[in-house]
Structure formats: C-alpha cells, structure tokens
Amino acid sequence: MNAPLIVVVGAGPGVSGSLARRYARDGYSVALVGNEEAPVRALAEELEAGGTAVQWAVADVTDTTAAASAITDLAAQAGRVDVLHFNPSAFRHKNPLELQVDELLADVALGVGALLTAVQAVRPFMSAGARVTVTGSMAADEPWSEAASLGVQKAGVRNLVHSLDATLKGDGVRAVSVTVCGTLSTEGAFTPDRVADALFVAARQDEDGWRAEITYEG
Q: What is the pTM of this model?
C-alpha cells in the first residue's frame, strides 16, 4: 500500500512548511502546491533530502482551472489523499474606508474560495478517515481594522469548514479549522512548529467528539 499522503495548499515557509515536516516525520508522503516556485522547491528539496517522497506544483490557487488541475494531478499520482491542509490568506494593509470591493473579493477568493477548489479536486481521492485541516486565526473574532480583509477571510473560511465537515462526515471524512489565538513568532508558544503540532493533533480527534473548530491558545 502506498504511504498516506498530505496535500499542502499554500506551501512555503512558516506553518505550512512546519506541518509538511511534521507529517513527513509520521511517514506521510507530501504534495505541495504554492504560487511561488522558489519556496516550494526549497521545501520539497529539504523533505526529499530527509527521505520523504515529495511531489510539488506551482499554481495560482485563485485560478480555479489551473489550481484544480494541479491539485488533481498530484492526487492522481498518489492515488489517494489522506489529509488536505489549506493555508493561504491575503494580508492587505487597508482599513474599511481604503479597501475597495474588488480588493476584498480578490482576497476572499484566495483565503476562502480556494478552499472549495482544493476540496473539490481531492474529494475523489479521499476515503473514510481522510481529513481537511485549515489554518485559522483570531482575526475571525478580533479583526484588526487596518487589515480589514483578513478578518473577513478568516471568519469566512471557518464558516466554510463547518459546512464542509457537515457535508463530508457521512462518508467518514472530517474537516477542522484551528483558530490560532496569537501572533506567529520565532520562539514561545506560537512558533510555526507549535502551531503545526496543534493542526496535526486536531486532525486526530476522536470521531465521536469531533469539533470542526479548535482554538489554539498556546
């Protein structure tokens, strides 16, 4: 049997890279999708050097056709997807009086809409026990007015995760977002590695007590 596979959408340095390493240590193969080649290639080469089987692709995840094709191709090569992790969001330093409608919609397309593309692409390769995880943020509940679109994205993606979980659970596939109640840092409770550990644990909840949102407070 092939090794289990995690598909990381929005791959690069930070939480997504830490999560890819965490699953690699647990024996998973890794598929990476990112919008910039250099960080995706660097992460893939690092994982490969450690003995992990890695596939990767560069795609604009807001381009639904290109993103769906890239993700489907990666999943088809493995023939299975055991975990899909969704990490993208857009940080735009504009308050609500500066933010334009087209900018808000573009950010939501990245931070929320692209999750639909990813899930729909991997669903044919998921069986009972597969999981969808999403990096959430306290911005969903405590938005910073100077980056107004971020809170909208994080509230939206958390809401979408609840709908996905309700839709998928009948087939034994579950979805969860982890609301990170802190700012990422190089030390302490909110390092990318610590947040990745929280995401890893969230995917392994007991099915009987499954929660579609978990709060990580460090």
A: 0.96
User: What pLDDT is stored for residue 218 in this prediction?
Assistant: 87
Measured at the CA of 119, the angle between CA 127 and CA 39, to 5 degrees, comes to: 110
Q: What is the pLDDT of residue 23?
A: 98
The Cβ of residue 41 has, within 10 Å, a number of other Cβ atoms equal to 14
Model pLDDT, residue 107: 98
Phi, psi of 213 (to 5 degrees): -140, 135
Domains of the chain: 5-216 (3.40.50.720)
DSSP code at position 110 = I
Q: What pLDDT, on a 0 to 100 scale, did the predictor assign at position 2?
A: 83
Say which residues have a Cβ less than 8 Å from residue 37's Cβ, sequence separation at least 6.
58
Q: How far apart are CA 194 and CA 140, in angstroms?
A: 20
Q: What share of the chain is helix, strand, coil (3-state, %, to 5)?
A: 50, 15, 35
Report long-range pairs for 23-26 (Cβ below 8 Å, ≥24 apart): 23/83, 23/200, 24/50, 24/52, 26/200
Strand order in the sheet with 29-34: 54-58, 29-34, 5-9, 83-86, 131-137, 174-180, 213-216
> Which of 129, 112, 133 shows the shortest CA–CA distance to 179?
133
Q: How far is 6 from 140, CA to CA, in rounded Å?
A: 26
Query: How far is 151 from 153, CA to CA, in rounded Å?
Result: 5
pLDDT at 98: 98
pLDDT < 70 stretches in the chain: 1
